[in-house]
Amino acid sequence: MKTRLITSVVAAAAFLTGCGGSGEPEQVGIEPKVFADSLFAVMKSDRTNYTKLIIQRLGPNGVGAIQPLEHWEDTENSAPLPAQMFRYGAEGVTEMTDSFTYSLQSLWPVNKQNAPKTDVEIEGLKYIADNPGQNFYGEETLGDTTYFTAVYPDIAVSPACTSCHNAHRDSPRDDFKIGEVMGGVVIRLPLPQS
Amino acid sequence: MRKRLPWILWLLFSLLLAGVLGFELFAQPQKPHFLPGQTSVGHFQIELTCNACHSESFADRETIQQSCVGCHGEELKAARDSHPKSKFTDPRNASRLSEIDARYCVACHTEHNPEITLPMGLTQPADFCLTCHEDIAEDRPSHTGMAFDTCASSGCHNYHDNQALYEDFLLDHAAEPDMMMGSGLPQSSLPQLMAMSGQAWNTFNPTRVAEVAERDWQLAHQEWLAGAHGQANVGCQNCHQPDPEAPWEQQPNTEVCGDCHQREQDGFRTGKHGMRLAQGLPAMTPELARQPMKTEASHQSLTCNSCHAPHAQDTRVAAVEACIGCHDDEHTLAFENSPHHATWTEFLNGDRPRELAVSCATCHMPRVEVDHFGQQVVVVEHNQNATLRPNEKMIRTSCMNCHGLAFSIDALASPELIRSNFHDEPAAHITSIDMALERINTGSNPDPQNPNGERP
Questions:
Q1: Contact, B56 vs B129, CB < 8 A?
Q2: Which of A66, B175, B309, B323 is in Cβ range 3.0-4.6 Å of B360 for a Cys bridge?
Q3: How many domains is chain B partitioned into structurally?
Q4: Cα dihedral: B44, B45, B47, B48 (round 10)
Q5: pTM of the prediction?
Q6: Which chain A positions have a beta carbon within 8 Å of B169's beta carbon?
Q7: How far apart are CA B106 and CA A15, in angstroms?
Q8: What ipTM does this complex have?
Q9: Segments forming the whole domain that contains residue B211
Q10: What is the crossing angle of helices A32-49 and A82-96, to 10°?
Q11: Of 1.10.8, 2.60.120, 3.40.50, 3.30.450, which CATH number belongs to A31-190?
Q12: With contacts defined as CB-CB under 8 Å, which chain A residues touch B132?
């Protein structure tokens, strides 16, 4: 009995330490989907808080202390738009890491450079618009790198979102409603080369 | 022996040559024999100091990029660069980067290629905007049919600095008249900055009065008394003997100016006047310049004192006389007959406040608002090239203190007018403001361009 137990423990240990003769040790780490979902959770939380706690509360729809403006640097008592804050975050991230990138895109972009461009982006943005509440995941090769690409719905969380986009002269739509998908957050993770 | 002699001579000559070149390559700061081709007007002053850009042997793009950003990064940041590197790092731009890798300055500004170098040191074809914006007419029908090289050449767009050209800015300033003399130039915050810095200095020591006479320093003392340093009682030793343990310096170098005027010195060293000093090279002299300079000024060294005469520190001299003392191009020579100069003469005669008078420095070394630890302060931009790369950068810092936006854009888009130092009204009209107005008034972009239209 004692011999059998020792043999089992040694066999288990050998298997767990990769000595079972099966070649490369199994890779461990966070699954791309879990990693991307986690990143999105942080982004969404920060973005919603900025929109509701700063822009909505202090802006024209609140106490009117600040004015959210695209060209805030040229106007006193103004603040960056939530979408700009989001973009500044994305730009800041690129200066710190190339482990992931993210951007805010839309099928109805104010800035046409933020329209989907790759096949996965187009498919993903259409999917989240047609399937409210669902995310889209895919893989794509851009340049010489394959990416895990996740697309998450960007939903109008306050009147600040809808009123601005509906009134903007560069917006292709003027009928956004609160709770509606206005665009998508695209997160990309480079996958290890096989 | 006779057969060997040529070989021996060849070997000796080769060794000698290798020694001379090796000494230059490894031991000399400047390496003229290793220059692969002439550099652009922006870099020729420092082109023999290879490591100014190639900070490492066989430096890759990333290393050279660090050199670019080291000198130009702050300026790009201040200009709210419209095309920062961060705009191109998203993998969705991979296809674009395969055409122009805009993450790196050298993608558009390669050096040592004079044959293909365009203004602003651009080495991409003039239609480079179309690489990404070829379909602009779909979004802006008013741009239909515009020539491929007019994006940045007509006073409408710049690649980096669009602070005076973006649509909302055009609309905000659309109704401005040609002349709008208000309060004119902003007041410099130098006294406020000195107070904020907590900088202390030694005042003039009256016991030195006897020494002034003894050493025949009366003229210097008189000039000092009448100048800015005398009025602020900045004593002699602050410049001549900042370290009390060090010997008295009869002719202090520019380093000492930076002890109190760091921001100004940084600006000076970033521009063409001081960039050689920034690289540890002897100061720039007019004879080295690629633009017309006065022969008699050929050998003057460009330091702080070249414009700010020691002791006198008369900024009226620094703002005009110092400039025309060296520069000999059409624009400079035309200044004395220009409407701008008339205002300067009125100021010198006491008939006009300085804030409403225009000197060379008003446009080329403007008083600019900058953020200083959260406070907006006004300082003199001592990088005289900052408003010239390209000249639309001058619109907000200089022109719009007295002129409307439309007039400013029109004036700066006219090479003839620049040559005559703005002697006349702008002949042609840039229609960017009209197009912006038309778009908001009609909700569309109906009209094609009218680059040669009449000014309204």
A1: no
A2: B323
A3: 2
A4: 140
A5: 0.85
A6: 71, 74
A7: 53
A8: 0.77
A9: 200-259
A10: 140
A11: 3.30.450
A12: 113
